[in-house]
Amino acid sequence: MSESARPASLELWLFDLDAGEEAERLSMDLLNEEERLRAARFVRASDRRHFAVCRACVKSVIASRIPGLNAQSITFAYGPWGKPRWGDISFSISHSQSLGLLALSPSGPLGCDIEWHGRQTDPVGVASYFTLQERLALAELTASARRDAFFTLWVRKESVGKACGQGLGVGLGNIAASCRPDEPVVRVLPGAPVPPETWWVPAFSLPGGYSAAAALPMSLAGLPFVWHGPFAPLDIFSGKAFRQQPLPFGLGSAAPAGTKK
Q1: DSSP track, 157-200
Q2: How much is the pTM?
Q3: How many domains does the chain have?
Q4: In a domain, 148, yes or no
Q5: 258 domain residue, yes or no
Q6: Tens-place pLDDT, residues 64-75
Q7: Considering the domain boundaries, does residue 106 fall inside one?
Q8: Are strands 77-78 and 84-85 parallel, antiparallel or unpaired?
Q9: 260 is a domain residue
Q10: Distance between CA atoms of 89 and 106, rounded to whole angstroms?
Q11: What is the CATH number of the domain that holds 121?
């Protein structure tokens, strides 16, 4: 990527998905028929609400970046593995428990993931699909540190899989990462269903027991991150969120209160 084509920063937006009835109603108004049907298939009301609110917030942020664009008019296309896309904008979406995450860039491959540590998961069982080096690194840690490190590995792998366009279809064992937050280089190994490549994947520990990461090509290593939020959906839909000053930071610089790199 040429220096002239290099984006100035990567935007990361956090959404509070535990919204009330009004926010859910407004969210549904921004979804198309296919998205409303998808939301209706969720068994739990909280899952339906989280999906609808997150999707509506994403549309609203994208629309805010293009003069004259109405969020309701945005209809996503999907790749073979389900990754949404729209126009030439590069973005990635993730949500877990009550937080939604949007990574947004003018161009280039991009993936993000957020995971709540309280989710029902089996770190030992899932880690059996990790690389040998990763399993050995986890085994050296205490039980509490091991869970945090597991989620650091998980969000890095998921972010790279999304950036490649296949999600976890790339294979957990085909992506080699570090469980140390200050070691952001991640490799797709030979033998994976996508070409071997090295990615820059900073990981973050967010307040409330969340881990998050964003994957960018190594040509964008060191790109500043600009964090927005977390915002209530009504502040997104009203435009209030877009009038607030964002907080830029990258590795080695100050992060929002309660955030660890």
Answers
A1: HHHHHHHHTSGGGG-GGGEE--SSTT--EEEEPTTSSS--EEEE
A2: 0.90
A3: 1
A4: yes
A5: no
A6: 988 899 999 999
A7: yes
A8: antiparallel
A9: no
A10: 5
A11: 3.90.470.20
